[in-house]
Amino acid sequence: MAAAGRRLSSQGGRGGWSRAFWSGQPRPALAPAVAAKPVPSEVLPFEAIPRSGHSAWLNLYRFWRSNDLQNLHHLMQRNFQNLGPIYREQLGTFDAVNVFLPSDAAQLFQVEGIFPRRMGINSWMAHRTSRNHKCGIFLLNGEQWRSDRLVLNKEVISPAGTRKFLPFLDTVAGDFADFLHRQIRKNTRRSLTVDLYRDLFRFTLEASSYALYGERLGLLEETPKPESQKFIDAVETMLQTTLPLLFLPPGLMRWAKKKLWQEHMEAWDIIFSHAEKCIQNIYQEFCLGKPRKYSGIMAELLLQEEMPLDSIKANITEFTAGGVDTTAIPLLFTLFELARNPHVQTAIREEIKAAESQGSRELSKVLNSMPLLKGAIKETLRLYPVGITVQRYPTRDVVLQNYCVPAGTLCQVGLYALGRSPEVFSDPQRYDPQRWLSKEENSSFKALAFGFGSRQCIGRRLAESEMMLFLVHVLRNFKIDTVSKDDLKTVYGFILMPEKPPLLTFRPTD
Q1: What pLDDT does 485 receive?
Q2: Which Gene3D superfamilies does the record cross-reference, listed alphabetically (predicted)?
């Protein structure tokens, strides 16, 4: 697809399918996106659902042999095109029904029950069991999940809880803009061309840690602390080793992937050690009875005394591990899209100026008056969803695409395929934040990057606020450009990421 086909223009225009299909392989031509097939008058049995292959272990072996796990999002998209809007996937012990249409996501929401379940991650659970750690809500199910979730909602995702940590995120976002200014002053050309991949990790860890623990790590200094960089490296290793272990039972993964298993366990140990140190610092200050002021999410949870300390530790550790890559990568994609769509960038910059000219000092009101900026983040997550699926286990039999799917079956909504389907979005390859300004797009199960229902991502408001405030400070201070206007090739490494980070150029707006 030509670069201009993806760039927003007043005339619009049609783009083709994504260039990135097979990394390093000839790119096969893609068939037109599927339309929903005419439904028979009678509901068809589960066994009639089309399959991507008939041997679960042979399928998994082929995945390993060809390294197709990194292209899982493209493979799902191809399977939908070849098999229709529903198909069954079997890989080793993994057995799921895949759909991508918003109507099917809405059906799954209706049958998720009061204790919605998502797919378990055996390697993560095995680490908790081996190290005698308690699980947080990402891994919990049932009544314990619900109990923890209700307590956490108040401080992490509710509007009142969000307002309290917004100033912390705003401070770090402002410091990042200062960090870029310092780098630019070292350059006689008054600009900075950089691969921002690592710097964004430092920003997201600094911001999330400040919101969680109420303390700064100093990651935006010229020489960040080695232990903080060690933590970031551990998060990357944990994610990279999760994917090849994903479809194996714990006993087999220790034998078949011994080196990967050891790296995975060591990475989680570093993550827990880092989180434990932060937790101990805030807990000690809390026990000393220092003057009461807002000191981050963990301090509020300790003050409430509605959750045992080991449960607070488990959940805060999961937040710490989950708040780095999953925010840094979408920010990188957003900066790239704004760089190659300069008129979108200009429009958002003008929106920021207009919102700030209103004189409100309440950050939540300022952010709520920036619908185009919110739309830009949604548009990024439509094209580049962090997680490529949302999973649910229906609590009762459900009919999807006229097939009867039994209760308890793992069902996945393919977010990558959903976001790029002409069946769902007009001109889907075009980066167009304005599409999200209509109520219809926001209320029809099309924006599912953070999941849906009561099990939607607990860190949603933290991540959205962090990204919005970052973009406010960066766009207020800098114009962003990129030399390459081509689509970014993406790989799946348990989260969706660029195969190669883009080079971005920053120039002061003044």
Answers
A1: 84
A2: Cytochrome P450
**Is residue 40 very low, low, confident or very high in pLDDT (cuts 50, 70, 90)?**
low
Give kind and range of the element (H or E) at residue 280: helix 258-287
C-alpha closest to that of 256 among 266, 265, 248: 248
Which among 386, 384, 390 is positioned nearest to 445, based on CA atoms? 390
Alpha-carbon distance of 13 to 343, in angstroms, equals 16
Phi/psi at 184 (5° precision): -70, -35
Query: Can you state the angle between helices 197-213 and 226-245, rounded to 10 degrees?
Result: 100
Report the alpha-carbon distance of residue 101 to residue 424 in Å, rounded.
7
Cβ-proximal residues to 67 (8 Å cutoff; 6+ apart), any chain: none
**Which of these, 264, 266, 292, 296, lies nearest to 279 by C-alpha position?**
296
pLDDT, tens digit, for every residue of 173-200?
A: 999 999 999 999 998 889 999 999 999 9
Cβ pair 271, 242 in contact under 8 A? no
Q: Rounded to an integer, what distance in angstroms lies between the CA atom of residue 132 and that of residue 130? A: 6
Please give the backbone phi and psi of residue 272, each rounded to the nearest 5 degrees, phi first: -65, -35
d(CA 410, CA 392): 6
CA-based angle 210:215:217, to the nearest 5?
Answer: 85
**Distance, CA of 400 to CA of 49 (rounded, Å):** 10
Residue 73 and residue 388 in contact, taking contact as beta carbons nearer than 8 Å? yes
Question: What is the predicted pLDDT for the residue at 78?
Answer: 94
Which two structure tokens, joined as six digits, stand for 487?
A: 């689509």
User: Which positions ≥6 away from 404 have C-beta within 8 Å?
Assistant: 43, 44, 45, 46, 397, 398
pLDDT digits (tens, 9 = 90+) for 70-120: 899 999 999 999 999 999 998 877 899 999 999 999 999 999 999 999 888
Predicted pLDDT at 92: 78
* 443 within 8 A of 102, measured Cβ to Cβ: no
The tokens for 424 are: 């769902």
pLDDT exceeds cutoff 90 at 484: no
Q: What is the pLDDT confidence band of residue 41, given thresholds at 50, 70 and 90?
A: low
Supply angle C-alpha 218, 234, 268, rounded to 5. 120
| pLDDT over threshold 80, residue 408 | yes
What is d(CA 256, CA 236) in angstroms, rounded to the nearest whole number? 22
Q: Is residue 404 part of an annotated ligand binding site? A: no
Residue 13: pLDDT over 50: no
Residue with tokens 């201009």: 4
What's residue 373's pLDDT?
A: 98
Which letter does DSSP use for residue 51 in this model? Answer: B
